[in-house]
Amino acid sequence: MSIFNEIQEMGHEQVVFNYDEATGLKAIIAIHDTTLGPALGGCRFWDYKNEDEAIKDVLRLSRGMTYKAAVAGLALGGGKAVIIGDAKKLKSEALFRAFGRFVNGLNGRYITAEDVNVNTSDIEAVSMETQYCSGIAGASGDPSPITALGVYVGIQASVLHKLKKDSLKGLTVAVQGTGHVGSWLCRYLHEEGASLIVADIDQGRLDKMATEFGAKIVGTDEIHKVDCDVFAPCALGFGLNDDTIPEIKAPIVAGGANNQLLDESRHGEMIRKRDILYAPDYVINAGGLINVYHELRGYNAEAAKRQARNIKGTLLEIYREAEEQDIGYHIASDVIAERRIKSIKSMADLRKNYNNQSWIRR
Q: pLDDT-derived band of residue 112, with 50, 70 and 90 as boundaries?
């Protein structure tokens, strides 16, 4: 992999590699774009097959955060961090404090938060070394309920647009992954009267979904194939690919996972040709980012929930744009995000030019 070619092609500003021998920390921080504000994005702890896989993941995730913030109307840029290794073996207070020192060295260009295998107590350790973190206990805490709320109203928008129904009662939703976000999503769906089909690698989580919500359990290799109204991927990314897309029976794909399309261009078009309504992942799962954004501004849970509910209207706008322009839903969301970034950048350039002219006149 040519790292500079990758970051040039994807439009990144900065990629930082961090190593701490004492704790075994191997971390990559990617800052995609700070036009709208400081780059904010969670830290993911994952045992990648190799370093190229980790780099690819952090680059795609950080770019997705830029677009997510732009579409959500937040004054934030996009960034992400990954820690390489087995979280069960490597997690320690010292490791996260070492990571916090590296974050602090970026002087506010990047703000970190929870992600896969990183929880509020881990972020509390990070906060001992830097102020540039969000999602700690006692502030906004775990963003998963707000993320799931955004996915839930996004499913409502998708059902309204595709199926012309203003209620989820009696519909069947297949949820892939019942971790923090997936379990909260199941709760919201169950409360509205939807039937649930679930899959997860953790049998304990599945048993809980079956007991609390009457969910039907299927295998992780079967969940995308089941007959349902909505398929909601809420596990790790890249689940929409050459093998799975032809097997999907649901007319709607709308879930909380990041980077759902293995190849954005090819698989986005593949879904469109199958006449499946696809909710762009960084739009529908923006609730978590909205939540931590409100923490940075002085946390108000109700304000965060209100803004997360706006995801419903944003998705309806994206669906209309896609169909009017005859383009994929993922492309339409990119267009809307890039439009906002471009407009703010133009304002900044004009302000800079004015300030320069004022200095010349003086």
A: very high
